[in-house]
Amino acid sequence: MTTASEVLSVVASRELAGKRTVFAGIGLPTLAASLAHLTVAPDLEIVYESGVCGAHPSHLPETIADAVLITGAEAVLSMPALFGYVLQGGHIDVGFLGAAQIDRWGNLNSSVIGDWHSPKVRLPGSGGAMEVMANSREVFVVMRRHDPRSFVDELDFCTSPGPDRALGDGVRPAGLGVTRVITELGILARSGPGEELKLVALHPGVTVDQARECTGWPLEVGGDLTVIEPPSEAELRLLREDVDPERVYLR
Amino acid sequence: MPRPGPDKTMSLRDAVAAYVHDGDTVALEGFTHLIPTAAGHEIIRQGRRDLTVVRMTADIVVDQMLAGGCVRKLVSSFVGNSSAGSLGELRRRIEHADPEPLEFEEYSHYGLICRYLAGAQRLPFYPLRSYAGSDLPGVNPAIRKVASPYGDEQIYVVPPVNPDVTIIHAQRADRAGNTQIWGLTGVQAEAVFAADKAIVVVEEIVADEVVRSDPNRTVVPAHAVDAVVEVPRGAHPSFAQGYYDRDNAFYRAWSGISRDKEKLAAWMAEWVHGTADHGEYVAKLGEEFWAGLAVGEAMSEPVNYGRRL
């Protein structure tokens, strides 16, 4: 039985083919990056928000600042260096982000549900997500929930704006914004400013209508809609035996 | 013979009594690593009120200071229980003004880092390539957009933050306050230099010669430090690289404790108000508990600083 986490990790890992630097959080992004390192992107370096570059952990980390990421790492940078030089300096190919809400342009909300001044739910906020969005060459989003509450026509609050909103604000964006959204139903993609997210791939057995019903805006289908190849035996074996043998994140 | 620096060592009780006053702006920094928990608890014990707390990752210690009634305003770029869940007291304050409203000033991480950078360098503002198109400037008027004086570019800027006092936790310092940190160094140096006064809480106070044997490891020099306090295990439930590991189980438990007002009050009564100081808190947890967070050795290779013959 292949779990949803396994499928999402494998699909995200394939998207990292040929990439050099990835800014990743703990959980699915780490699994995807670690698997990609063993398969399609052998030169991949994972950079963590805590300042760690080139980690060689003895155990699977539980947080982006886990002590096992520090011991044996190639470099540990201060916050001004990590955010100022590495991120804003333009050294990140792919940033991984999650969010409570995403819209068709790949803008993200991680601050509040409801009105900012009197929110229904106060969420953690940006952290470094705004900087990852503004400065990475491109951004991948992995969403565990693909439903109209998360894929919304209009964000309650825009925490991390994509390049279209930056341009609207009179600022030239550095990166492409969100280029891939990976969900349990399939993959949404856009290639840069001026484009909205379109459905480009579905998992086997999922229909276009299902994806449309679960998306809060009129979801368009990209030119050549494909069916996602299920995880191979080799990918699953690496993921289960090498990347997360204790199944910390492979729920 | 090298002269010893001035001795700034004192107890945590005396340091908080001397440098943290009602209504002050207090920065507590430490990014997941070396969070100054013992200092936060002492502020609660001494009953400080109306504080403005500045902290990039407002997590458990901030939730506890909120529950302790110490905080009027929070300046932060991430308000959550790490990746382990929610901060119950913070959410009650923001979502329901229960038991009273919390003034909240929201930034992104680099936005707040830039406020410390401007503060440390006594600059009027600091520019950064974030915020364009975000809704944050609309709810935080301190974030502003200016025209570059060198071209036609627009850029967002943030104002300096100059806390009345910054408190950090570190692995070791000498008695004068030369403070050494290894592992994640976060934004501690910038937060100290931005402040009027600084308290450094350390796992151990070491001989001057220990610090001088490795000066590159000193993140904060003595002249920026007003008080040096030795509090072993003072960063729990966060960790001190090389001393003890993070208490992940407590992080996971906190969301459940803080969600329930009565459970939270009972926890505070037992672990903060019910202990005279951090030494009692550490002893109450017990040696068996601490053995569970023990770490093994991974020494760095010494470097040769050289000496003139």
What do you see in this structure?
The complex is a heterodimer of chains A (251) and B (309). By secondary structure, chain A is α/β, with parallel strands linked by helices. In chain A, 26% of the residues lie in helices and 20% in strands. In chain A, strands 2-1-5-10-11-12-13-14 form an eight-stranded mixed beta sheet, with helices on both faces. A two-stranded antiparallel sheet of chain A has the order 3-4. A two-stranded antiparallel sheet of chain A has the order 6-7. In chain A, helix 1 packs across helix 2 (28-38) and helix 2 crosses helix 8. Chain A is globular, with a radius of gyration of 18 Å. Chain B has twelve helices and 14 strands. In chain B, strand 1, helix 2 (37-45) and strand 2 form a beta-alpha-beta unit. In chain B, the strands form three sheets. In chain B, strands 1, 2, 4, 6, 10, 11, 12, 13 and 14 form a nine-stranded mixed beta sheet that branches. In chain B, 32% of the residues lie in helices and 20% in strands. Chains A and B meet through helix 4, strand 9, helix 5 and helix 6 of A and strand 5, helix 4, helix 5 and strand 9 of B.
